[in-house]
Design a protein that fits this description.
globular; alpha+beta; 4 strands; 21% strand; two-stranded antiparallel sheet
Length: 68
């Protein structure tokens, strides 16, 4: 899994941080999302998918790793 964020789309709602605090944080000055771990471990994949699904600005993209 690879996580991508679009800070320009982020509205600072913070739902991603509540869903996956090990992967997402927010800038202090404006609440815009910060990505802490672009390739989180498998144990966090469900939380990252939830964060992407509930993001009101659709600022989170999850790419699945291709199997070789």
């Amino acid at each position: 899994m690879r996580v991508l964020i679009d800070q320009d789309r982020c509205c600072g709602a913070g739902s991603c941080v509540l869903s996956a605090p090990e992967v997402f944080d927010q800038r202090e000055e404006d609440g815009i999302v910060l990505l802490l771990d672009a390739e989180p471990p498998a144990a966090l994949h469900d939380a990252v998918h939830e964060a992407a699904a509930i993001c009101p600005a659709s600022a989170i993209t999850v790419e699945q790793a291709e199997r070789v």
